[in-house]
Amino acid sequence: MNKETLFTDWNFMRILRLALGIYIAVQAVETQSIFSGVVALFFIFQAVTNTGCCGSDGCSVPIKKNNSDKIEEVEYEEIK
């Protein structure tokens, strides 16, 4: 990870993940809960590395580009 990833492109979701991670971390320390600490580290890691649950692509579906401009004729068969 480099400095550019850490200090640029801060959007609403990234700030929300960081704030949620810090809040859960404080609660984990107060309640001495290891599970809450792991969840807090997960959210803080996501905020610092600017990733989501699905990675850097964000659950996107690849767009299939069709370069052919021709229109194919569709044949229909009547069923009785």
Structural class by sheet pairing and helices: mainly alpha
**SSE string:** HHH
Number of strands: 0
How large, in whole angstroms, is the Cα Rg? 23 Å
What characteristic shape results from the CA principal axes?
Answer: elongated
Give the low-confidence spans: none
Q: What is the rounded distance between the termini?
A: 64 Å
What's the mean pLDDT score?
81
Short synopsis of the structure:
This protein is 51% helix and 0% strand. The protein is mostly helical and 80 residues long.
List keywords for this structure.
80 residues, 51% helix, mainly alpha
Secondary structure elements and their pairing?
Blueprint: H1 3-7, H2 12-31, H3 34-49
Helix pairs in contact: 2-3
Overall description:
- This protein has 80 residues and is mainly alpha-helical.
- The protein has 3 helices and no strands.
- It has a domain of 39 residues.
- Helix 2 runs antiparallel to helix 3.
- The mean pLDDT is 81.
